[in-house]
């Protein structure tokens, strides 16, 4: 598409009261600016320019992997100055200008604006919305015939005008590159000392430029200036995502306490209980049940998996029909096999657990390769760390590890072998052998009775 994009992201964000640049504040695990970049990326623009200033290095570093280029606005002299800074880097054609602090903008709404802009052969078009309860937005002034005449910033609007003009500026503009030369006519606002991008509207309406504002749902263009706004916007984003998944056949028992990031996918007939957080690049299969209180980050969960209450799963893979939790912790690079069972208070790190294998209670399994149909008894620990290095534990298929055993790595337990409960295994166990390492038991006959007699005497 013959569109270049300018995203304004240099502002200080004073009202956020933060050391972090405003556009890096996150809504659903992703910086506001990232949401805006994602929305424009789908338009396949010729170029995306981000105007940075406050915290420029931090912002640039965060988006190195994105197809955007950065332009530095040295002094933050307002949105008008920001666009002038970007102007010489633009290609001919239509220029889409957006505020970096409006993360709810959607590709669909942007496409709608482009279509109307072209249909009406405008020089400039922008998005507006109506909402009585909001302050801080520029107001769109129209003449008696309804033609847009200018935008006046909230703080400069008089009370009588406030009642008359209730259309607000959404901060999303399309303007033909030829018209950008008119930016030079914008004057410094005498009260704030800033150059307002919005003044271009008044300038163009005086000349031959054809311009118009198009209303869109307020939900698409809410801007974030404060932490309250951020919360409000994140709430809307969360509801949008949940209703999208509900439309695709996912049940949420309590959408108010469920958080699903934009990058997550969920299969049909999965049921998600309250207080579930699905984060990052996570995919959940169909027919899963996720009980209350779990957080799953950057992980892939197969079909028919059950995740019981209060489990944490990070950078891991859980295959079909496995049962995890309650209170299990899968740390990065864990793979849990089909029909496997990881029970309460079990911590897995960088380990592969075979199909049908069970570790049902109180275990630490780290740097382990565990085959299929293994039984890991309660309290089993892989001693994988000697204080300097990490070592592997290898447990082959069909092994039975008795409760309260320690496997001191590096060590291999061969196929079908048994480890007796309470053993400390320091050497490899051959296939089908029994490893037992504990002191023999002595029973002292009538010891209790004798002790009582001793006490009396
Ligand atoms: C702006 C609009 C207002 C509109 C609202 C919508 C102007 C003058 N006003 O107001 O009409 O209703 O957005 O959300 O444009 N920025 C820079 N350089 C600067 C100043 C700002 O890049 O020198 C960036 C900010 O980082 C921000 C965006 O421009 O992403 C908007 O700036 P902000 O100060 O938030 O403008 P608003 O007062 O919200
Ligand atoms: Ca703003």
Features:
457 residues, 9-stranded parallel β-sheet, Spore Coat Polysaccharide Biosynthesis Protein SpsA, Chain A, alpha/beta, UDP N-Acetylglucosamine Acyltransferase, domain 1, 16-stranded parallel β-sheet, binds uridine-diphosphate-N-acetylglucosamine, single chain
Number of domains: 2
Roughly what is the average pLDDT, rounded to an integer?
A: 96
What is the CATH topology classification name of the largest domain?
Spore Coat Polysaccharide Biosynthesis Protein SpsA, Chain A
The CATH architecture of the largest domain would be: Alpha-Beta Complex
* Proportion of strand residues: 25-35%
Largest sheet: 16 strands, parallel
- Continuous helix count: 9
Looking at CATH, the homologous superfamily of the largest domain is: Spore Coat Polysaccharide Biosynthesis Protein SpsA, Chain A
Which ligands accompany this protein? uridine-diphosphate-N-acetylglucosamine, calcium ion
- Low-confidence segments, given as residue ranges, are none
C-alpha end-to-end distance: 101 Å
Tell me the Rg in angstroms.
31 Å
**Overall geometric form:** elongated
């Amino acid at each position: 598409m013959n569109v270049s994009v300018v995203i304004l992201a240099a502002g200080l964000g004073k009202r956020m009261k933060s050391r972090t640049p405003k556009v890096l504040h996150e809504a659903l695990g992703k910086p506001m600016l990232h949401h805006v970049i994602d929305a424009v990326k789908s338009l396949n623009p010729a170029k995306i320019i981000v105007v940075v200033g406050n915290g420029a290095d931090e912002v640039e570093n965060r988006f190195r992997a994105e197809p955007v280029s950065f332009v530095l606005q040295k002094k933050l002299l307002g949105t008008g100055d920001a666009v002038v800074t970007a102007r010489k880097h633009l290609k001919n054609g239509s220029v889409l200008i957006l505020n970096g602090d409006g993360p709810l903008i959607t590709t669909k709404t942007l496409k709608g604006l482009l279509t109307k802009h072209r249909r009406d052969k405008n020089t400039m078009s922008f998005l507006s919305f109506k909402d009585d309860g909001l302050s801080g937005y520029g107001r769109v002034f129209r003449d008696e015939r309804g033609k847009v005449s200018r935008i006046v910033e909230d703080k400069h609007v008089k009370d009588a005008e406030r009642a008359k003009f209730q259309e607000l500026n959404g901060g999303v503009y399309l303007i033909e590159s030829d018209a950008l030369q008119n930016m030079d006519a914008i004057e410094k606002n005498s009260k704030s000392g800033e150059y307002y991008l919005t003044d271009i509207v008044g300038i163009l309406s005086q000349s031959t430029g054809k311009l118009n504002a198009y209303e869109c749902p307020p939900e698409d263009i809410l801007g974030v200036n404060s932490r309250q706004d951020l919360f409000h916007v994140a709430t809307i984003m969360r509801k949008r995502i949940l209703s999208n998944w509900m439309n695709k056949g996912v049940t949420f028992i309590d959408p108010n306490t469920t958080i699903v990031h934009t990058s997550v996918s969920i299969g049909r007939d999965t049921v998600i209980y309250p207080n579930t957080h699905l984060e990052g690049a996570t995919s959940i299969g169909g027919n899963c049940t996720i009980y209350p209180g779990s957080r799953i980050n950057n992980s892939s969960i197969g079909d028919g998996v059950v995740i019981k209450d209060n489990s944490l799963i990070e950078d891991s893979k859980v295959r079909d029909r496995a049962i995890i939790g309650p209170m299990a912790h899968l740390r990065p690079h864990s793979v849990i096999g089909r029909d496997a069972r990881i029970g309460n208070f079990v911590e897995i790190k960088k380990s592969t657990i075979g199909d049908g294998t069970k570790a049902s209670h109180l275990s630490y399994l780290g740097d382990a390769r565990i085959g299929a149909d293994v039984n890991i008894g309660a309290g089993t620990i892989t001693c994988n760390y000697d204080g300097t290095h990490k070592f592997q534990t290898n447990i082959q298929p069909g092994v039975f590890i008795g409760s309260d055993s320690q496997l001191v790595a590096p060590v291999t337990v061969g196929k079908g072998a048994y480890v007796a409960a309470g053993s400390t295994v320091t050497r490899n166990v051959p296939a089908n052998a029994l490893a037992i390492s504990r002191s023999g038991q002595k029973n002292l006959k009538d010891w209790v009775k004798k002790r009582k007699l001793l006490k009396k005497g």
